[in-house]
Design a protein that fits this description.
The chain crosses the membrane at residues 12-31, 37-59, 71-94. Keywords: Membrane, Transmembrane, Transmembrane helix. By secondary structure, this protein is mostly helical. 80% of the residues lie in helices and 0% in strands. The longest helix has 29 residues, at 2-30. The protein is flat, with a radius of gyration of 17 Å.
Amino acid sequence: MKTTKGNITKRIFWVLLILSIVIGYIFYNFLQGQFSLKFLIFFSGVPFLLFATGAFGLLWPKIKPKGDEIYITHALVVGVIFIVLFFIHVWIILPHICPDFGSCLGV
């Protein structure tokens, strides 16, 4: 029974990953002209959230802590993975959406 539940959760996390890529591709390639830049920048958090959730869900069996003394290491690994995903989002994806980020927000 455990393997069936594990397979279902893996599928859910893969669906989240694929859904985030599909949403990003559709919104930022085909529908980019139909929405304002401000909306597209703020909406970019949705595919990021889906992608981060899928990535952490798939990585969780590999990085989950096995004892009390390893929790700090686990927290650091999770933090590093999240910050890498966040930096990819901020420094690669957002400049693709709006090359002059400050002017896109109206600052």
